[in-house]
């Protein structure tokens, strides 16, 4: 199977996963997805692949879904609930980075086979984490702000596509710019670096455009009372 086919399959799997989490666990499911997505994206991003003739990093899809999550929360619950997802993602990434840095310090047993792979992946994680945390914080808070700016101007449901895409388009440019410069500047040759930057942004934007029908579906589920909100007693 080609990388391009797998990329599309992965995108659909992520979108469907979000709807399943949301349908059966409500806001809590979206918060859980945010934690999963931020951790998974920062592991996948260390792998580079060829997509449509360009060099790109993995992680663009699953990371891009965090913008869909905050847009669903913004649309159905408001700015305050959307910001909670940002805080959860931020805390999840910090926790994972600290825990794994300690884990790779353990002296492995002679029978161990995982240490080299873990060290390869997670030894670069502090730089990736700093880049991701900075980019995530700035871009997500901008996305929430911009989403509500467009929602206040065009509150009708028929303009849902506009606030989803217009807010995310700028937010993901901020995210890609900040992340790539902190994480990859002088790590790769400049031609590879700029290829990663532009493909990162373009692919994230494609994900944002493709998630629009899923945002409409999530709103329909919410408005029709089909969301099973978890209640802690």
TrEMBL record:
Provide the topology term for how it sits in the membrane: Multi-pass membrane protein
Q: Which residues form a coiled coil?
A: none
Query: Which keywords does this Swiss-Prot/TrEMBL entry list?
Result: Cell membrane, Membrane, Transmembrane, Transmembrane helix, Transport
Which cellular compartments is it found in?
A: Cell membrane
Note the Pfam families from the entry: Vut_1
Q: Which residues cross the membrane?
A: 6-22, 29-46, 52-73, 85-104, 124-145, 166-186, 192-217
Query: Keyword Membrane, does the record have it?
Result: yes
Keyword Membrane belongs to the record: yes
Question: Which InterPro entries did the record assign?
Answer: YhhQ (IPR003744)
Provide the family line.
Belongs to the vitamin uptake transporter (VUT/ECF) (TC 2.A.88) family. Q precursor transporter subfamily.
Q: Which NCBIfam families does its entry note? A: queuosine precursor transporter
Q: What does this protein do?
A: Involved in the import of queuosine (Q) precursors, required for Q precursor salvage.
HAMAP family reported in the protein's UniProt record = Q_prec_transport
Name this protein carries in UniProt: Probable queuosine precursor transporter
